[in-house]
Design brief:
This protein is mostly helical. The chain contains 17 helices and two strands.
Length: about 425
């Protein structure tokens, strides 16, 4: 009875979860600025959306290899500061430096811009898995949906900070040596400072458990399970719930990653916003993240993770149908009405999107044990980054051929496929005891 009572609430883990969320905060700060403005920077040199979409996948090609590798490596790492922390305190500050340089190199040449993006993503994607795997190391399995809600709230706050506040700095002119007076720069270095501060706070206040040198038995057990063999074993399990949730998330990330890189350009080219206002569309998703991440975890705790995810996917299909029709239905309306109604739809999108993201990761973690948390985290990112590679050029090509409404129809179709695939998932609820408690 005492154990069951403990599982009813996240009380006792709030502070730890919030502090761990600082690592996720750094990702939430960089990603929306990157996704909104790098396509605009590439547009200085490239006219075709399909080619811009292709270049936007270069970082995801790195991610598809680096995230699983570094996630699994962190499973095996043992140091005095933990198994995830060494990666966090070295790679995140490096990411911050290259992130600050992105808009500056955009004024220099396409080569320097792409090179900076490449170096940024080597460090940023390598650290992503260890950052995310830190939470399930320290929070019991039955509380991870709620804890992931707290962490997604941190990411949502970061998205709000980046897209609604820092993005306004993109309209501010600064004078730089060799470039003169320029705009579309300041938000990136300011965001980098926030990242470094977050890393310092995370290092000071979060103390990992089980960071001592592994026992002889543990080392021998791991020696028999090479990283690639472990990854194949996950896919080859007789019970296919893990495979089907990975295929589902592949589809919903194909939808999301196809739409995301072009939302900023859509608002500029179709709705007529300024560069500083373009990121506010993504900001609406961030606001929804911050407000609904924790409630979505609590909702899943009560009604079940699978049921909650499928409801959210069905709602996303409806919202994307409305977004698809938006430009036609509002064509004759005033600028403000068109813009605000579009933001409202993206806010609704954010509510249901954060519900899917908050609860899918805990489902996958519930299928892992302590020694394979990083491997399952890596698999999650392998499939999500595969979507990031495949989707932007396809979505960009659809936009070039049929206009921006096709972008949202594209997302709708893949969300619908994910909805049906989730019906084949039968594990991943808190009552499954395989997860690491």
């Amino acid at each position: 009875m005492e154990k069951a009572k403990e599982k009813k609430s996240l009380k006792g883990y709030w502070t730890t979860t919030f502090l761990i969320g600082l690592g996720f905060f750094t990702m939430g700060l960089m990603d929306p600025l990157y996704d909104n403005y790098v396509p605009i920077f590439l547009g200085y040199y490239i006219d075709k959306n399909s080619l811009i979409g292709l270049i936007m996948t270069l970082d995801n090609v790195l991610a598809i290899f680096l995230i699983p590798i570094f996630s699994a490596l962190s499973d095996r790492t043992r140091t005095g500061i933990g198994r995830r922390m060494p990666y966090i305190v070295t790679l995140l500050p490096i990411s911050a430096i290259f992130f600050a340089l992105v808009p500056i190199t955009a004024y220099e040449s396409l080569f320097l811009l792409v090179l900076t993006i490449f170096l940024l993503n080597i460090s940023k994607q390598a650290v992503r898995g260890p950052v995310v795997a830190l939470m399930p190391d320290m929070v019991p399995g039955d509380l991870r949906s709620e804890a992931n809600g707290v962490i997604n709230t941190m990411g949502g706050i970061a998205t709000i900070l980046g897209t609604i506040l820092l993005a306004r700095l993109m309209d501010v002119h600064v004078t730089l040596p060799g470039l003169g007076k320029v705009d579309k720069i300041l938000a990136f270095p300011v965001a980098s400072l926030f990242v470094i501060v977050a890393v310092v706070l995370l290092f000071i206040f979060v103390k990992e458990k089980n960071s001592k040198v592994p026992s002889k038995e543990e080392r021998e057990s791991k020696a028999k399970e090479p990283i690639l063999k472990s990854l194949r074993a996950v896919i080859g399990e007789k019970e296919k719930s893990a495979l089907f949730i990975l295929l589902s998330l592949l589809c919903w990330f194909i939808a999301y990653q196809g739409i995301l890189p072009f939302v900023g350009k859509y608002t500029v080219e179709v709705l007529g916003t300024s560069a500083g206002t373009a990121a506010l569309s993504s900001g609406m998703v961030g606001v929804a993240y911050a407000i609904f991440a924790v409630p979505s975890g609590k909702f899943a705790h009560r009604f079940g993770r699978k049921r909650t995810i499928r409801w959210a996917l069905a709602a996303l299909v409806v919202v994307l149908a409305l977004v698809f029709a938006h430009s036609t239905l509002t064509a004759g309306l005033a600028y403000g009405t068109r813009l605000y109604s579009f933001w409202a739809l993206l806010f609704l999108f954010g509510i249901f999107w954060v519900t899917v993201v908050t609860n899918s990761f805990p489902m996958l973690w519930q299928m892992a044990d302590y020694q394979t948390i990083g491997i399952y985290t890596g698999l999650y990112y392998f499939f999500s980054q595969l979507a990031s590679i495949v989707s932007p050029p396809l979505a960009g090509g659809a936009t070039d051929l049929w206009g921006y409404p096709a972008l949202f129809l594209y997302g709708l179709v893949f969300m619908l496929i994910a909805f049906f695939l989730m019906s084949r998932v039968h594990r991943g609820e808190p009552e499954d005891d395989r997860g690491n408690d």
